[in-house]
Design the sequence.
DNA sequence: TCCAGAAACTTGAACGATCCAATCCTGCCG
DNA sequence: CGGCAGGATTGGATCGTTCAAGTTTCTGGA
């Protein structure tokens, strides 16, 4: 077992001082090219890797980003987080950061966890997924000047902090326009109760697209909590009242329920979901697809911008979703 | 902004030395109760938290466990990883460890990532999900005496390293027995090609349960790569050849395909999937459910056992799945 | 009362990196 | 050819903790 390779080992090997090795790593421009090369050679020869703990102790920065992993809420939409996390890990890696997971059962405990993570691990930043109106977590973090980004707009105060989001309204509008283009007129919407920012946004896209095409959206929408059973129930209701020929849904769960409700209806009713979950892909459900990898990448961009002191970087990013067309549309 | 609270601050406040504070934290039994209490009071009063970087530099242990997050392979089964990770984070947390994510596109890069993670972050252990025959990753880790646990048996050498797994054969056997008990005799099996440990195991459970009941399993099974379309194709084939009245599947993806194939068949064919993914719950598909939270917890148990030097702890854990009965069964 | 031995506590050093201030070159100009 | 500016390089101090070794305090038996 070879003994541990430290900066001193490299320095000795390249016949320079520790500081010069450190400079090669952290400020290459102040080292003469020839020396730099010699040090680099020694580094790769010895397989040297800077010890993160030692570096952190001196600089106070851990190069660690925290992300919460949730207890698979609804279930069907769980994979959204999954894919987002994967993108986050990948991009963070490229930027020299690592992703640390944490959980918390409620907001209060979550804030206590922040305190712990910051105190013991000196985390550099947080990524929050899905914030609510007047979220205590963002307030806490902002109070303490802890860098953080949310995936999801703070609907009450758009300039409160950096965020990345996907334009849900644009997604449902695109879905609606597609249905209009294929000849549908009575296009319904299955969504969430008024008051959730995300839900209202998605409904607005459908509403405006219909209006723009000269169709009156009145009476063509239903609201409920998310879930397959709920979607099925509301779709049955729609069928017996307004008899739509197509429906746009705020989630794949609702869309799945809708699909079950229309199973034997002739002529077939078109259905478009939201999130393009694996389930949608598996059963051929058309769905609005969020660019999750891209969203994760932009989160990391914003964070590194803040961490490296580039305050001129834009602090809000709104991404456009795409429509994954499958046979249900 | 109050200045940083270190072990020295606490020591001064409790009128003891740094080392005594350290002992209160790491070896409470060698400190007099009265002193211990005084130090504890100072700690909570000042809100002191041991700096992980400094501790790590001295001890060489990071209290960090690495887990890989995969790029949502098939998709439908992706949420398994999701739930496992959540459990892992929760249990690790309770044991004083944190979970760090990493990705890698192929095995070679993954091993390089190990090297990096170990070198710069001094990770304490790895959790691998799903290993293959002669996996290069486990060999690499074992060579270097890096503690690790796999979720999934090493089918070629059961004693090679600590592992946690779910008894897939028991799961399919249970599913098969349930179908037998409800009067089915021609119970088919949709599985994966011979040669994958997991797939062979799940098929064996079905095979043995049928044989034990005096039913000849010959000709009643089909093999293919995982996927909804494949499941549908093979189920159609089964229907036209052996006309089973029920089918047990090696995954929910296959089961979903089977469901589509039997949509209009009368009398209805019973279907049972595997993994109890959110999709199964959503559409009412009966499925064998893996205790993922429990599995994650046992992984952490095994790791902490190794890390804390308790070599007498069992190094293999085989958990029993349960059958989630829904209307397709 | 005294002393040995154990228990409780204290002190200095070290982990491996970066920061700071001081020193050493090197080339260039007068 | 000496001096000087400027950048390249060096050694020492430091971050917060734990280890190893030393010192003081306590306990109980003669």
Sequence:
């Amino acid at each position: 077992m070879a003994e541990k390779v430290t900066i001193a080992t490299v320095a000795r090997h390249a016949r320079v001082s520790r500081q010069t090795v450190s400079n090669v790593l952290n400020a290459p421009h102040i080292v003469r090219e020839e020396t730099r090369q010699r040090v680099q050679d020694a580094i790769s020869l010895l397989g040297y890797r800077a010890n993160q703990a030692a570096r952190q102790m001196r600089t106070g920065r851990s190069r660690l980003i925290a992300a919460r992993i949730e207890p698979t809420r609804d279930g069907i939409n769980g994979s959204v987080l999954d894919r987002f996390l994967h993108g986050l890990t990948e991009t963070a890696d490229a930027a020299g950061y690592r992703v640390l997971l944490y959980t918390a059962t409620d907001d209060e405990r979550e804030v206590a966890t922040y305190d712990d993570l910051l105190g013991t691990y000196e985390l550099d930043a947080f990524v929050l997924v899905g914030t609510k109106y007047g979220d205590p977590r963002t307030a806490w973090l902002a109070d303490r000047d802890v860098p953080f980004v949310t995936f999801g707009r703070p609907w009450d105060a758009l300039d409160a902090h950096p965020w990345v989001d996907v334009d849900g309204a644009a997604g449902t509008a695109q879905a609606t326009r597609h249905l209009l283009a294929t000849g549908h007129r009575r296009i319904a919407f299955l969504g969430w109760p008024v008051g959730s920012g995300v839900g209202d946004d998605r409904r607005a896209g459908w509403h405006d697209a219909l209006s723009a095409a000269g169709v009156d959206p009145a009476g063509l929408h239903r609201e409920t909590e998310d879930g397959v059973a709920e979607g099925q129930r509301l779709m049955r209701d729609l069928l017996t009242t307004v008899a739509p020929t197509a429906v746009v849904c705020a989630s794949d769960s609702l869309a799945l329920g809708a699909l079950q409700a229309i199973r034997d209806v002739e002529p077939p009713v078109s259905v478009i979901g939201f999130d393009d979950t694996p389930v949608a892909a598996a059963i051929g459900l058309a769905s609005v697809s969020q660019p999750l990898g891209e969203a994760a990448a932009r989160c990391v961009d914003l964070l590194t911008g803040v961490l490296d002191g580039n305050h001129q970087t834009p602090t809000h990013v709104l991404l456009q979703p795409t429509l994954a067309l499958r046979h249900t549309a």
